[in-house]
Design a protein that fits this description.
The structure holds 2 protein chains of 2 kinds. By secondary structure, chain A is mainly α. Chain A has 14 helices and 2 strands, in the order ααββαααααααααααα. Classes of the chains: A mainly alpha, B mainly alpha. Chain A: Keywords: Cell membrane, Membrane, Transmembrane, Transmembrane helix, Transport.
C-alpha cells in the first residue's frame, strides 16, 4: 500500500526497468480489482441461481411433498409428465396459442405505429409517451382492469358486443377461446407501444439517401418498404421476436389474476409457468414441479433455437 | 397535396386512438373506483367518474395494509435499484476497462446466464430461504436481486463506448487507484446510463410478482402487488374497491415515468440498437 503512490507516478526517465515494474504492478492491481469487482455477481449467481438450478435437477428425481418424505424415484416424474399428464400438455398448448395470438398482431401493429411516428408528425413526443404508458403499469393492475372490461356478464366488452353490435353475450372468462383472447389482448395492450418504440429507433437509423436514390429509380412506396425498410430494421425485428418469445413462454401473472391458480375451471388459460406455480406452491409437490421447471427450460431452449434458425434463414434468403 | 393531407390526418387520428386506448384503462380504473360496484355491473355501464372514491379507498384501507405494502415496495425497489447500480457498474468497469485474465470469457459467461429462466431454480431458492430463516422477510427478495447480468451487460456496453482509455490513463498518472478511477472518472460519465438502468430496475422491482408472492406470505411483508392480488382474491365482488386500490397503487409509478420518461424511452431504444 505504501508503494502505491510511488508506483503511480509517471516514470521519471526513459529507464526500461522502472517502466517495466510499474507496468507489472499495475497489471497485478488490475487483476486484483478485476476479480474483486466481478465477485459480487459471481457470488450472488452461484448462491441464488446456479446452486438452486442444479439442486432443482436433483429434486426432480424425487417424489417430494412439502410435509411428507422424500423418495428417490429416478426419472419417474419425467415419465409421468410425458405419458400421464394431459394437463401439462394442455398448458404447453395454451402457452403457444396465447403466444401466437398475443405476438403476431402485436408486432404488426407496432411496426405500423412506428412507421406513423417516423413520419415527422407534430406532437411526436406526446405520442411516444402515450403509447409507452401501458408498459409501465404493473401486471396485476393490468389484469384487474381487464377483468372488469372482460367481465363474464357485465363488462365493457359485453356491453359493446351485445348492446351495441347486437351479438350474444360472451362469457369471456369461462369460454375457452374467449378467455385466451382476453389474456392475449392484455399482452398486446401492454407490449405494442414498447415494440413500436424499438422499431421507431431502428427506422430512424436508416440513411435517408437510400430512399432518395430509390425514388429516383422509380420505386413505389410499397416497394421501398419491402426492399429497404424491412431489411434495414431486420435486427430490431429479430430482437422483438426473441423478447416476445421469452416473455410469451413465461406468461404467468395475467392468467393467474384473470382465472386463478388453475387457469380457469376448464384450465382454459393455464400456462406452463402457471402450472409450475400451482404444482409447487399450491399443491406442494416440489419434485414433480422441478421436473416441470426443467421441461419448461428445454421447451424454451428448443423454441428459441428454432426461432434463431428461422430468423437466420430469413436473413440469408433476402 | 389533398391526398397527402388526408394521409396525415388519418395518421394523427390513428395515433390518437392508439394513445386513447393506451390511457383508457387508467381512466376506467378511476371511473369504477369512484362509483359503486352495482354501477359497474349494469348496462349501460357508468362511463364518468362518480363521487365515491374516498369511500372505496377507505374500504381498501380497512381490508389491506395499503401503506405498509407500499412502504415495503419502496424499500425493496430502492434497495435493489441502488445495489444494482453500484455492483453492476463496478463489475462493468472491471470488464470494460481493467486488463485481467479471462475477462472476455467472464463477460460471455455473464451474458449467457441471461438465458436461464427465473422459474428454473425457484423451488430450491425457496428452500434455501427457508433454511436461512428468510421467508417472510424483505431480505429474501432483495438479496438475490442486488446484482444482475442484465445490468452488467447494459453498463459494459455503455462504458465501452463512452469511458475512454485516455481518461483512465490520465487518472492513473494523477495517482488514482482503480476504485477512485471508477468512482471519480467513470461514474460521472455514466450518469445517463445509470439513470436509464435505474428506472428500468426500479420499475421491474416495483412490478415484480412471482418471487415475492412465493416468499412473502405474511401480510406484514406484502409488497403492493401481492396486496392488490389479495384484494382481488378475497373480495372478488367488490370491483369498485379493487379498482380504487389499484388506481392509487398505480399513481406513484405514473409519476416516476412521467418525470423520467426521457430515460425510459432511451433505455428501450438503446436496447434495440444494440441487438
Amino acid at each position: 500500500m505504501e508503494s502505491r503512490i510511488e508506483q503511480n507516478r509517471p516514470a521519471a526517465g526513459p529507464g526500461q526497468a522502472t517502466a517495466q515494474s510499474k507496468w507489472r504492478s499495475q497489471k497485478f492491481r488490475d487483476h486484483l480489482s478485476g476479480y474483486l469487482y466481478v465477485s459480487p455477481f459471481l457470488i450472488v449467481f452461484a448462491l441464488f441461481t446456479l446452486f438452486p438450478v442444479l439442486w432443482s435437477m436433483y429434486i426432480s428425481l424425487f417424489s417430494w411433498k412439502l410435509m411428507g418424505s422424500k423418495t428417490f424415484i429416478g426419472l419417474q416424474n419425467y415419465v409421468w409428465l410425458f405419458t400421464d399428464d394431459p394437463l401439462f400438455w394442455k398448458s404447453v398448448g395454451n402457452t403457444f396459442s396465447m403466444w401466437l395470438m398475443g405476438t403476431i398482431p402485436q408486432l404488426f401493429l407496432a411496426l405500423f405505429i412506428a412507421t406513423l411516428l417516423n413520419a415527422n408528425l407534430k406532437g411526436k413526443r406526446f405520442f411516444q409517451v402515450g403509447v409507452i404508458v401501458p408498459n409501465v403499469t404493473s401486471l396485476v393492475a393490468v389484469a384487474v382492469v381487464f377483468i372488469s372490461i372482460f367481465g363474464a356478464n357485465y363488462g365493457l366488452m359485453n356491453y359493446f358486443t351485445s348492446e351495441v353490435l347486437g351479438f350474444e353475450k360472451i362469457n369471456w372468462q369461462a369460454s375457452y377461446w374467449h378467455a385466451q383472447i382476453a389474456v392475449s389482448v392484455m399482452v398486446i395492450w401492454r407490449w405494442t407501444g414498447y415494440n413500436a418504440l424499438i422499431y421507431l429507433a431502428a427506422l430512424q437509423s436508416i440513411p435517408q439517401e437510400l430512399y432518395e436514390a430509390s425514388t429516383i429509380d422509380g420505386a413505389s412506396k410499397f416497394k421501398q418498404f419491402l426492399y429497404i425498410t424491412i431489411p434495414m430494421i431486420r435486427p430490431a425485428i429479430i430482437f422483438t421476436i426473441i423478447l416476445s418469445t421469452i416473455g410469451g413462454m413465461q406468461l404467468f401473472v395475467e392468467p393467474l389474476i384473470f382465472a386463478g391458480n388453475t387457469g380457469g375451471q376448464a384450465n382454459q388459460v393455464l400456462t406452463m409457468v402457471l402450472y409450475l406455480y400451482d404444482t409447487a406452491f399450491a399443491k406442494n409437490s416440489f419434485g414433480y414441479a422441478s421436473a416441470i421447471a426443467w421441461m419448461l427450460f428445454v421447451i424454451i431452449m428448443l423454441f428459441s433455437l428454432f426461432n434463431l434458425y428461422l430468423t437466420r434463414k430469413i436473413n440469408s434468403t433476402t | 397535396m389533398v391526398v397527402q393531407r388526408i394521409g396525415r390526418l388519418s395518421a394523427y387520428a390513428f395515433l390518437l386512438v392508439t394513445v386513447l386506448i393506451s390511457i383508457f384503462p387508467f381512466y376506467w380504473m378511476f371511473v369504477i373506483g369512484s362509483n359503486t360496484t352495482a354501477d359497474a355491473n349494469r348496462f349501460p355501464p357508468v362511463i364518468i367518474p362518480g363521487s365515491l372514491y374516498m369511500d372505496n379507498i377507505t374500504n381498501v384501507f380497512n381490508n389491506i395494509e395499503f401503506f405498509r405494502a407500499l412502504g415495503n415496495t419502496v424499500i425493496v425497489s430502492v434497495a435493489i435499484t441502488a445495489a444494482q447500480l453500484f455492483f453492476s457498474s463496478l463489475a462493468a468497469f472491471a470488464l470494460s476497462r481493467l486488463h485481467f485474465k479471462g475477462r472476455h470469457v467472464l463477460f460471455v459467461f455473464i451474458v449467457t446466464t441471461l438465458m436461464i429462466p427465473q422459474q428454473l431454480g425457484i423451488i430450491p431458492l425457496y428452500i434455501i430461504m427457508q433454511n436461512l430463516s428468510l421467508v417472510n422477510t424483505l431480505t429474501a427478495v432483495i438479496l438475490p436481486g442486488i446484482v444482475g447480468a442484465y445490468g452488467i451487460f447494459w453498463m459494459k456496453q455503455y462504458m465501452d463506448s463512452s469511458v475512454h482509455y485516455e481518461l483512465i490513463e490520465s487518472a492513473r498518472i494523477d495517482g488514482c487507484g482503480n476504485f477512485r478511477t471508477y468512482a471519480t472518472i467513470a461514474l460521472p460519465i455514466m450518469a445517463p446510463a445509470l439513470a436509464t438502468l435505474g428506472i428500468i430496475m426500479f420499475m421491474g422491482t416495483w412490478n415484480d410478482f412471482l418471487w415475492p408472492s412465493i416468499v412473502l406470505k405474511d401480510t406484514s411483508v406484502h409488497t403492493i402487488q401481492i396486496a392488490l392480488r389479495n384484494l382481488n382474491k378475497v373480495y372478488y365482488r367488490d370491483i369498485a374497491m379493487i379498482m380504487a386500490g389499484t388506481f392509487l397503487a398505480t399513481i406513484p409509478l405514473l409519476i416516476v415515468v412521467g418525470v423520467f420518461s426521457r430515460y425510459f424511452i432511451s433505455g428501450i431504444t438503446a436496447g434495440a440498437v444494440k441487438a
